[in-house]
């Protein structure tokens, strides 16, 4: 898989005006270290934020820009920042960067951290200034060894330049930044599970309220933002709200650009910075190059393993939250996966649900018991040993594990692709029911939502 933001040769070259996240990338994919980053206007937005803007001004600018979280949930960033307490006596606050990128088929944050580590640091510096946070942590997926190495070097470079530490830019503002590698749990992508893990506790989501903005890491006000989200902050502060809003395609309700990609049996798998609102077909055909010779597109996921499957006719949907929502699923991380016509959907779903079942924290019963149950049924269908009622039971589990039915969003994301796969490819599931099979003795009747 190539980690690149380049599109087809006939596309407009990356510029600061059109590609705020990726225009500084090197052609050789090597990291952009401090001196080169500064030569490309690096930390100019941070200097502006410290010299010309109050902390409230920064928050309002981000709020007015319409920046939303890029980790998958899409919550408005400025609104989230506004939840931090106004009480000046609460002077111990934290800014956490969620870099625990474990969503299958997602690698966008990895590219930013490996190749543009100073962009993330600048984004966190400005954000910390706005939030009055004196300490920040980059909670990094443990397997991202190269990213950890590059981030740690970049932190030291920023310290040496006086951009981290005490009295930054003579402002009297102090901000320390640390890279913390996680122990390898998908559930740490949930912000309160991340906080528990950072504290050295078991990575279980916390009950909310209280929310992290009131009671976060070590009981102090805390804001958690995704890598890509924070990397948008310097350009918004540096270039202004109107410019940022002008980047998206007509019809998009989301503003700015987004790192989007395509994987699977496509001719040009990769990652590109593109405007919100671009049709999925343009992403698939013009950037990813369509399917490889000998393969046909069967279905696709728009944004990671936790999003529902869509059919080829859905490629005309625009890539933004509302556009993908109109065809029945979520934008997610924006990194799509093409499923070719040689893939058996039962096997694919069994593999996915095994991952989600393994990564459940085990705190709540529907997720802890429901996901392994789905794996058991899918494995039986995959082996041609399914029984009458198995598909209905799977659909019942989709309902029982849906939004609002579990302690966090892990289970709803896990069953969304399962429900859509049965919806569009039910005959493949029915093919796994053994001939002359009866109702499973351990399932006296198929479960139904509300039963």
UniProtKB/TrEMBL annotation:
Residues 346-391 form the NADH-ubiquinone oxidoreductase 51kDa subunit iron-sulphur binding domain. It catalyses: a quinone + NADH + 5 H(+)(in) = a quinol + NAD(+) + 4 H(+)(out). The keyword Transmembrane does not apply. Keywords: 4Fe-4S, Flavoprotein, FMN, Iron, Iron-sulfur, Metal-binding, NAD, Oxidoreductase, Quinone, Translocase. InterPro entries: NADH-UbQ_OxRdtase_51kDa_CS, NADH-UbQ_OxRdtase_suF, Nuo51_FMN-bd, Nuo51_FMN-bd_sf, Nuop51_4Fe4S-bd, Nuop51_4Fe4S-bd_sf. Belongs to the complex I 51 kDa subunit family. NDH-1 shuttles electrons from NADH, via FMN and iron-sulfur (Fe-S) centers, to quinones in the respiratory chain. Composed of 13 different subunits. Subunits NuoCD, E, F, and G constitute the peripheral sector of the complex. This is NADH-quinone oxidoreductase subunit F. It comes from Pseudomonas eucalypticola.
């Amino acid at each position: 898989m190539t980690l690149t933001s380049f599109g087809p040769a006939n596309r407009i070259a990356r510029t600061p005006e059109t590609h705020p996240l990726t225009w500084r990338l090197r052609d050789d994919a090597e990291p952009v270290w401090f001196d080169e980053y500064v030569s490309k206007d690096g930390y100019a937005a941070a200097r502006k934020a410290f010299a010309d803007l109050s902390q409230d001004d920064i928050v309002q600018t981000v709020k007015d820009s319409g920046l939303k979280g890029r980790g998958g949930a899409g919550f408005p960033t400025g609104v989230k920042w506004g939840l931090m307490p106004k009480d000046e006596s609460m002077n111990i606050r934290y800014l956490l960067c969620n870099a625990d990128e474990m969503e299958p088929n997602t690698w966008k944050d990895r590219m930013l951290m490996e190749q543009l580590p100073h962009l993330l640091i600048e984004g966190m510096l400005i954000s910390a200034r706005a939030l009055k946070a004196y300490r920040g942590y980059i909670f990094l997926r443990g397997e991202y060894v190269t990213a950890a190495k590059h981030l740690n070097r970049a932190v030291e470079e920023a310290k040496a330049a006086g951009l981290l530490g005490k009295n930054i830019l003579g402002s009297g503002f102090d901000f320390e930044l640390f890279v913390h590698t996680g122990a390898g749990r998908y559930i740490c992508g949930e912000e309160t599970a991340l906080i528990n893990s950072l504290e050295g506790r078991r990575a279980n989501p916390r009950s909310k309220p209280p929310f992290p903005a009131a009671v976060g890491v070590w009981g102090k006000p805390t804001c958690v933002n995704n890598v890509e989200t924070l990397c948008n902050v310097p350009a918004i502060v540096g270039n202004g709200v109107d410019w940022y809003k002008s980047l998206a395609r007509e019809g998009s309700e989301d503003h700015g650009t987004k790192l989007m990609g395509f994987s699977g049996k496509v001719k040009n798998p990769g990652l590109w910075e593109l405007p919100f609102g671009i049709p999925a077909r343009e992403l698939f055909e013009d950037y990813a190059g369509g399917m490889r010779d000998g393969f046909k597109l069967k279905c696709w996921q728009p944004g990671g393993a936790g999003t529902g499957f869509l059919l080829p006719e859905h490629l005309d949907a625009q890539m933004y939250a509302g556009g993908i929502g109109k065809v029945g699923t979520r934008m997610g991380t924006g990194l799509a996966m093409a499923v070719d016509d040689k893939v058996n959907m039962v096997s694919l779903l069994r593999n996915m649900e095994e991952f989600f079942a393994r990564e459940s924290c085990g705190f709540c019963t529907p997720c802890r018991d429901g996901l392994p149950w789905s794996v058991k049924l899918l494995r039986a269908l995959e082996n041609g040993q399914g029984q009458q009622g198995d598909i209905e039971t799977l659909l019942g589990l989709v309902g029982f594990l849906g939004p609002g039915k579990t302690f966090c969003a892990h289970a709803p994301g896990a069953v969304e692709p399962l429900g859509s796969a049965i919806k569009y490819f039910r005959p493949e599931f029915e093919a796994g029911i053994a001939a002359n099979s009866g109702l499973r003795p351990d399932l006296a009747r198929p479960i139904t939502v509300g039963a």
